[in-house]
Amino acid sequence: MLTLAIAPPSLRHTLMQGEHEVSGQDGLVLSTILGSCIACCLHDRSSAIGGMNHFLLPAPPNGLPGRSDDAERYGLFAMEVLVNAMLKRGATRSTMRAHLYGGANLHVGMRAIGSENAGFARAFLAADGIALAHEDTGGGDARRIEFQPATGRVRCRAVVGRLREEPVRAALPADSGDVELF
Amino acid sequence: MSIQILTVDDSPSMRALLRAALTGEGYRVDEAEDGRSAMEWLASNRPALVITDINMPRLDGFGLIAEVRAQAQFNALPILVLTTESSPEKKARARAAGATGWIVKPFDPAKLAAAVRRVIH
């Protein structure tokens, strides 16, 4: 533990599926690797902060086409916690710019879950009035994303021939939506 | 005449999802995009329930609850908070301001419907 405490502060944070982070720290890079998952990078120039999430919608029941209600709620939650974290740090929806990455369809001939996830994120941004400045989604290759939240700069590289494993599709936690009456 | 519910959330996506869940249960849903718009709407309407987010521009959920409770005519109006926040401090603050209940997103339609039935008399 002592060695951790005296190590220089890391300026690179890796985001795993289901996580999000918002920061205005100079030099910080948020990094993630995406297959069919989506990362939304938000940057607000007026407040010099940015944030990124990394999510995958839950599978619809019985493999039915289209998005299930669960998927809709989960995706909305993943986007809303990111947007709320940005708003709390002084960003506004009208000054935020979004980049979308990921949503690859890793297996030819199988359900295009990557495209479905990208479509969800695009629809969310449109409905919530957040401008989509750049999108690099779909295709058959995984991507490595490096995002500087303070500046909004993004580097997206293909990770060819790797990441053939589908990530575990998210599910809503059993206690989600629990109600406490006072 | 169906029972009227006001939902208050700055996210159009969340308002649409709530509308789908509540109209599916037979309720009539009106919407406001923040606490200030909600107060303007409440000046001429008497819903059976308010469901509000916490983080909103102009007037947030805490402010909305306080302003509603400051009016005697809304003493008995149930207010459910629906939020991404889960901190005990914020929950306690909402309770002290006069909220009726606290629901953490992502909401579960069945649990939400059960809570709505319980607080609407």
From TrEMBL, chain A:
EC number per UniProt: 3.5.1.44
Keywords: Chemotaxis, Hydrolase
Entry function: Probably deamidates glutamine residues to glutamate on methyl-accepting chemotaxis receptors (MCPs), playing an important role in chemotaxis.
Signal peptide boundaries: none
Gene that this polypeptide is encoded by: cheD
Organism: Sphingomonas jinjuensis
Family: Belongs to the CheD family.
Entry's Gene Ontology BP terms: chemotaxis
InterPro entries referenced in this protein's UniProt entry, alphabetically: CheD-like_sf, Chemorcpt_Glu_NH3ase_CheD, Cytotoxic_necrot_fac-like_cat
Class of this enzyme: hydrolase
Name used for this protein in its record: Probable chemoreceptor glutamine deamidase CheD
A Pfam short name: CheD
HAMAP family noted in UniProt: CheD (MF_01440)
UniProtKB/TrEMBL annotation, chain B:
Coiled-coil residue spans: none
GO biological process, one term: phosphorelay signal transduction system
Response regulatory domain boundaries: 4-120
Key words of the record: Phosphoprotein
Keyword check for Phosphoprotein: yes
A family per Pfam: Response_reg
Positions of post-translational 4-aspartylphosphate modification: D53
Top-level taxon: Bacteria
The keyword Methyltransferase is annotated on this UniProt entry: no
Name the record gives this protein: Two-component system chemotaxis response regulator CheY
Taxonomic placement: Bacteria, Pseudomonadati, Pseudomonadota, Alphaproteobacteria, Sphingomonadales
